[in-house]
Design brief:
The structure is a single chain. The protein is an all-alpha fold and 205 residues long. The chain contains twelve helices and no strands. Helix 2 crosses helix 5, helix 6 runs antiparallel to helix 12 and helix 11 runs antiparallel to helix 12.
């Protein structure tokens, strides 16, 4: 604990920022299994009772740290690779790749707590989104834009595709994330795209 932390009484957002930063550093350096509320408190220069007033356990604190320092890095960019297959694959891959970077040990620790894992997935608005008053959520809009680009290239006729087919890659990705309680592999994404979605598109055209 450094002198500045000992000599300064922090409150509110300043204290919360210090705790979240400490949790992120503990997670990165120590790993989810070995980090504790006490070790986080020590690194933040406070005591663990302060942490428990804000978060009920370390999993909730980890979620808060991930939400602050990690999830905002996920972007909803629309790929334009030149063909529909690669556009869809690239888009789905970008949605889940950040989960792999968190680290296998952390993922495994959180998967052991299914309720927490589902809460983490629900915390990523770019992956799982509540239905809004708008006709489509952001991922559905992205899929439509990808399909419109494919239509401009002469690959498909968009009006022939039912809404359920358009949203199918997203629905299958969500199934993999929520039901299987594990990061989605590149092989699973390829199976969604090459084994299911693209064949269905070709069958309908």
């Amino acid at each position: 604990m450094d002198k500045q932390k000992k000599g300064t009484r922090r409150r509110g957002e300043v204290l919360e920022e210090a705790i979240l930063q400490a949790a992120w550093e503990e997670l990165s350096e120590t790993g989810y299994t070995h980090m504790t509320m006490e070790s986080i408190a020590t690194r933040a220069g406070t005591n663990k009772s302060v942490l428990y007033r804000r978060w009920s356990d370390k999993s909730e604190l980890v979620i808060a740290a991930l939400r602050k320092y990690y999830f905002p890095k996920i972007k909803n960019e629309i790929p334009d690779t030149g063909n529909l297959r690669d556009d869809v694959y690239t888009y789905l891959h970008a949605r889940v790749e950040p989960l792999k970077i968190i680290g296998r040990e952390t993922i495994r620790g959180l998967i052991m707590e299914p309720v927490i894992w589902r809460r983490i997935i629900a915390s990523i608005p770019q992956i799982i989104q509540q239905r809004s008053h708008d006709k489509h959520n952001k991922m559905e809009v992205a899929m439509i834009m990808i399909l419109k680009n494919a239509e401009l290239r002469g690959e498909i006729c968009l009006e022939k595709l039912p809404p359920r087919i358009i949203s199918l890659p997203i629905d299958l990705l969500q199934y993999e994330l929520i039901k299987k309680l594990e990061p989605v592999s590149d092989e699973a994404i390829a199976e969604i795209v090459d084994g299911i979605f693209i064949p269905l598109i070709h069958a309908i055209q």
